[in-house]
Amino acid sequence: MYQHPNQNPYFQHQQADQYVNPYYRETKSLPDQWVEYIQPLVTRALSEVEEGINLTHLFQEFILSGVLVGQGFTPEQAIEQVETWEKGESKLLQASKAMK
């Protein structure tokens, strides 16, 4: 089963452990920690906009990635999982990717 990473701001905020820098938690708000944590998703989404991917598909892809991040995936794992779904079991993601 998937283990929640210590880098996830939600779990840092909820559970103090030896891997979490308490100074970081005290100086950064939880929303700011989340914004920093999801930056790879934002960067990737912006690059896909420049590639001309339609916005419906882009929103689906990155909202799903955000849901997975909230479930404990790293941003990189979330993107990888959504791409796997897109190539296999999700007919809706495949259809939206094909839209112009």
Written description of the protein model:
It is a single chain. Helix content is 69%, strand content 0%. It is mostly helical and 100 residues long. It is elongated and about 45 Å long. The mean pLDDT is 84.
Write the layout of secondary structure elements.
Layout: H1 9-14, H2 22-27, H3 30-37, H4 39-50, H5 55-70, H6 75-87, H7 91-98
Helix pairs in contact: 4-5, 5-6
Compose a concise summary of this entry:
This protein has 100 residues and is an all-alpha fold. The chain has helices at residues 9-14, 22-27, 30-37, 39-50, 55-70, 75-87, 91-98.
List keywords for this structure.
single chain; 100 residues; mainly alpha; 0% strand
Low-confidence stretches: none
Shape: elongated
Mean pLDDT: 84
Discrete helix count = 7
